[in-house]
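Q: Okay, next protein. This is Dihydrolipoyl dehydrogenase from Parageobacillus caldoxylosilyticus NBRC 107762. I've checked the sequence twice, so it should be correct. Can you predict the 3D structure?
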Amino acid sequence: MVVGELAQERDVVIIGGGPGGYSAAIRAAQLGLSVTLIEEGELGGVCLNKGCIPSKVFAHAAQKMADIPHLKDIGIDLENTGFQLGKLQNYKAKIITQLRQGVEALCKANRIEILRGHASFLAEDRIGVEAGDAFEVYRFRHAIIAVGASHVSPPTVSVDHERILNVDSIYSLETLPGHLLVYGNDYIALEAAMSFHAFGSQVSVISDDGTFGLDDTIAKELQRIWKKRKIKLYTRCQIERAESSLDCVAVTIRTAEGETATLEGSHLFVSCEKKANTNGLGIERLGMKTDENGFIQVNRQAQTSLSHIYAIGDVTGAPFLAVKAIKQGKAAAEAIAGQLVEVDLTFLPTVVHSIPPIASAGLTETEARRQYGAVRIGEFPLAGNGYASILGQKDGVIKVISDAATDVLLGVHIIGAGAVELISSGVLGLEMAAREEDFRFPFYPHPSGNEALLEAIEALRAQAIHLAPAKQGKKEDHTKGVTI
């Protein structure tokens, strides 16, 4: 190893080139700071190369597969339709390459220095970068840690990336699972389950509680959809043992009541817990504060316990969402540049690119009742929305929650076509402390899925036009509604 004799001076050093890291780099460059970005692997990080983007490529293809029956209904007859996993893998690789090249081009355009290698802190103002046989030392004024987190398998499951998979391997499969067992309680498990079901795999889902962290109404609707599509759901269960052979996986599950059963499938996908990628980073030399699970503690400016060093994204703990990393990255860059900023995760949206998609922001009904006591609930089934009927995508419901004392909106929860795009309206309203009237007053284009949000708001006071009076304000069958 060749060690640099002198420390090279840098203004802002960012460790990690994922969505948070490169967003921080670009924002800092926009603010006139000189930026050095250190990445050990590929730019874009796990999100672009293994996680967010590959899973959404699969979700996009799955939605197209799910649309085929409707295409026949409207006169588009597709003969000899089928699914070729190899072609989807080629498409995924092309998209990843294009997006990565786009990130590289943006960094170059913003005059961001990119260093390849493993970075570790040597002191509070020095960092070493190891690349092969070379080792260089850099002195920095500010640093941003964006190294992410890695998957940790449950103690009862050993991921082999052949029959037993996690998010790093499931979207690289070369053959379609005959029967995919899915174990998890988050959006990652939901996306994998519904994508592979659309491709033709038999799917069974094993979950600790079956709600996947969703509002109860949304979880109930999801379970109804799964029952209709013959996706088997095992709730309040944990995996006691998983064993793989040449052609199958045998999984022993234990229920909350202590009963056991054995399930067999061709593959098992596990949505794992995460641990911070801080091994070898050297933060222990700095006395940087971490929580009991090893995640770096930060304030609302993304500052660590050392005021000139920031941390963003998964390395700071849950929620493990790229949108959080991006927001923190921009805020860290702006704080370094002397701007007054903060990151408030109160209305951070959660989205699931499933079939149908799911999106939520704000409080669930249970949380709202616990915090506010008296609340109003408005629900509108997409079966009552005219545009959903046109699309042939009538599964789903929109639910809104407001404070009965002030009319202020507390939560928006959606399962159904257009949920991911529509949740932005909910987030904006929640951030602005909108009241019910603020959502009722504007015009909503007709016909569109947006009208379903309006009618959910109107249902708060039994004013929804396309919902029978007996259905308003009550938790009834979401498959029924009056359409126009």
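A: Here is a summary of the prediction. Residues 2-50+88-151+275-336 form a domain with the FAD/NAD(P)-binding domain fold (CATH 3.50.50.60). The CA atoms of residues 471 and 477 lie 9 Å apart.
Q: Noted. On to the next one.
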